Amino acid sequence: MANDTSEKTPLLDNEDDSSEYRRSREQVKSLYLKASSQKSGIIAPEDLYCRNTINISASNSNFQDIKEADYIVAIFVVAFDTRTGNIIEWCKPEDSDLDGVEFKAMASGSHTILKDFIYFKKDNLYGLSCFENMPVESELERGARMKSVGILATSYTSLYRHMQFLENQVRHQLETPGRYEQLRAFWEDRKGSLPMSNPGRSLLSPMTEIPRADMRITHPAGCFSQFLKFFGEQIFVLWKYALLRRRILFFSPPPIGVVCYRVYCACCLARHTIPEIPEKPLKPHFYVNIADIDRLETEVSYLACTTEKIFQEKSHLYDVYVDNQNVETHIPSLQDMLRLNDSDRDKYSKLLNQSEEVYASLPRTVSEELYSRDMEDDEVADDEQVFITFFTEQNNRIFQTLLDVASTSDRTLTMDHMRSMGLDPVRDRQFVMDLVELHGIDVMLVIDNPCCGV
Predict the structure, then answer these.
(1) Of 55, 63, 154, 204, which residue is least crowded by CB atoms under 10 Å?
(2) What is the per-residue pLDDT for 169?
(3) Contact 396, 26 (CB under 8 A)
(4) CATH label, 1-45+204-454, candidates 3.40.50.11500, 2.30.30.100, 3.40.50.720, 3.40.50.1110
């Protein structure tokens, strides 16, 4: 990969950038591109296998003394018992609070597929499990042996690098039930303890310790390109809902693993680097089931996915329901945002062109295998760079323009302001109204004067 990634990741066009916005663009490039321009600045998965905390010295980047919490607090095996259903067959430590994990680690409907992986949230912890369904000649097991092997950690950014081990172990547990030696060894080598300096505080935030480099280990190669390809232009419908911090629920029948990645990608749509607008990362719950209903009722903003169709009937739990590629909302003020406008299509075209430039520059074998977990990070880093940088810059442009208008004497948002933000002056009016209300930005939208466009 070329060292100068900015040449391969053109920025959004804006000839009238203010000096403040130009500075924010430089922040974006520094934050999201520079760490990936040199391989020594990337946190490689093999360098992250450690017990507690790691220090990375990125001599060719701005990251120094970067630390990531890597606390694995439990490892477990879930099995399907034909008499009692899902059970925790084995775990370390033995006194782990795994209440409900047996139904998260083995998603509803998993009996219909052979393999899957599931990301989920358990209280303030995040989990990853690998599931497999193996046919057996056993009347007691009704012809199928189903198990999941998983871990719980304090951050979802530390989970993906253990995927291959979990996949191997679930196959091992199916073929040789009751043999836990390798799991015990893994636990002894990787276990961590919760931070005890202040037991009352919340666990470490998964997105605050490493501004950019954490992204290298949270998804497989091609995750963002698959997300873009799957939703197409509708990605900008999801973008508006994510920026408004709505409750978004993705539905899909099993397998659910790839949908967990859609949850993760959707979280990235709302990123920005404008310091005057406090960034409140969307909460990824990943896989949820009916046992999570009480928790979801208390959330004002989240992203999650499910295999249980019953959620569609419980509209009080979500604002936006995504059934594969069909995006729906029952909130009247959000329904106009379902309709794409010319500004959305223009943004999509720019994003697509940038992505195609990246993929065209990759060797054919690389572009064909973008979704392989075995690829080198540096070969596909641009996949992530294009996506993250594009939406961060787009969001920066909107917020900086709104703040600039709020600092003027009349605080009036005009048609030209809307266009400079890459928005439709008429069709994106409700979106902007909701956005300024959400963040308490004091601007005047002239909504009753057609000549003003907003």
Answers:
(1) 55
(2) 97
(3) no
(4) 3.40.50.11500
